[in-house]
Sequence to fold (128 residues):
Amino acid sequence: QVQLVESGGGLVQAGGSLRLSCAASGRTFSSYNMGWFRQAPGKEREFVAGISWSRWSGGRTVYADSVKGRFTISRDNAKNTVYLQMNSLKPEDTAIYYCAARPGSIEITIAAMRYDYWGQGTQVTVSS
Fold:
């Protein structure tokens, strides 16, 4: 069982930055693939970024095309935390951002249904 708690959301102007954090419970955090998803009003939940399991902090990463070059996902296994650094934010990035976890695998899946554990979400609002 893994419990996830996101933090770091808020209101920011277009072009600004935010860093989201997701703190995980449990002693096997390093063995989980982690993902960030987002859901805007009236839209389906969409994949943002994912990072593979790793014995050490780090791991392979995958990004949605819409955030590539602007967002960076990272993990710190010593702190049981995964981060999403968001730069050059745009109004269309406005959404609730969710952290998710699934047992580690070679594949970093972008399908929300394949993640087993979810946080409660944190609101990100980008004003124009």
